[in-house]
Amino acid sequence: MDDMKKFIGHKALTVSEAMRLIDDNQNGIIFMIDEQQRLIGCITDGDIRRFLLSGGKMDAKAVDAMNPSPKVAHSESEARTLYHRRNYVVIPITDEDGRIIGLFTGEGHEITNRTPLNVPVVINAGGRGTRLDPFTRVLPKPLIPVGDLPIIEHIMKEYQTYSCNEFHIIINYKKELLKAYFSENDNKYDITWHVEETPLGTGGGLSLLKGVFSDTFFFANCDALLTANYESMMRFHKDHHNIITMVCAYKNINIPYGVVDIGVNGAIEKMREKPLISFLTNTGIYIVEPEVTDDIPEATPIDFPDIVEMERKKGKRVAVFPVGESDWMDMGQLDELEKMRIRLYGE
Predict the structure, then answer these.
(1) Beta strands in the chain (DSSP E)
(2) Tell me: the pLDDT tens digits for 25-47?
(3) CA-to-CA distance for 58 and 163, rounded, in angstroms?
């Protein structure tokens, strides 16, 4: 029953609380129950994404985003059949009153082949990585190891699982070390180097790629690893005719203090004890149309969020694709390096 608790959510949960449960169990789903412990639906990270994109709020009730007709079984043998036949992540087993009496998570299954996207990938690897000082006095940030591999290679390997094998890497700081590492790399990546003569921020380096692409490409900073569904991201980008899609992660932070809102003359208007703050944060990963590079001034430092705002003000469609907090690993700060290593390699 303790193992089941991480998959169960009560109907009173908010969307942000449901997101936290989904992230905690790392299976992408929870099952919602009513006061009588009866199954009333399920909610996945995809359900939450669609709810938010349709205008839903993080503090809304999770039942407003759930699927009210989840697939269920009434015995382990039935769950086993459903699981293998349709590759469900978790199959709830219910009694005759609709109460969950078990969950079938399978006995190990092969990872399904990912749909080849064959989309070029641009990685911005030119920054000094000041947040990772003193390590970056010796190595450029992309070469700082996380387990057996440097962060940039983890990123590249994730893209390769979708047959994205064409890499364009923007470099500046300690660029020769980066080139030397990959020149002797046994994997023989398909890399084109683009050298900034002066630092151009998180977006200005794209001016070096004017005319390079005729179709959509990924653009990523070199300090974040994303394990979400890249095919879904690309489909969302294409279906909505976005010029830029910004991938954002849900973030939930518990404030460890009582929070007080005041009005005129210090009158207390509201008090909240250790509130949960929920928001979407930019992961530094984008899907971009090639005409964006034409709008970027040459040899001019500019950050990519400023480019997003520039396109938005022109009336171009820019949008957010939300992913779960557990789908995003950021190594931009020292205390995050070990967390990322544990996520990738275990204790």
Answers:
(1) 8-10, 29-33, 39-44, 91-94, 100-104, 121-125, 145-146, 149-150, 166-171, 190-195, 217-221, 224-226, 244-254, 258-262, 268-273, 276-288, 318-323, 328-330
(2) 877 899 999 999 899 999 998 89
(3) 34
Give this prediction's pTM. 0.78
φ/ψ (deg, to 5) at 95: -85, -175
pLDDT tens-digit readout, 127-179? 887 777 777 888 898 998 888 889 999 999 999 999 999 999 999 999 999 99
Pairwise CA distance, residues 250 & 341, whole Å: 21
Task: State the CB neighbour count (10 A cutoff) for residue 255.
Answer: 12
Q: What is the dihedral of CA 136, 142, 144, 146, to 10 degrees?
A: 150
CA dist., res. 168 & res. 290, Å (int): 14
**Cβ–Cβ under 8 Å, residues 168 and 126:** no
Query: How many helices (H) and strands (E) would you count in the chain?
Result: 11, 18
What pLDDT score was predicted for residue 332?
66
What CATH number does domain 2-104 carry, 3.90.550.10, 3.10.580.10, 3.10.180.10, 1.10.10.60?
Answer: 3.10.580.10
Q: Which CATH code of 3.40.50.720, 3.90.850.10, 3.90.550.10, 3.40.47.40 fits the domain covering 121-345?
A: 3.90.550.10
Show the tokens assigned to 256: 């460890």
Judged against a pLDDT cut of 50, whether residue 279 lies above it is answered with yes
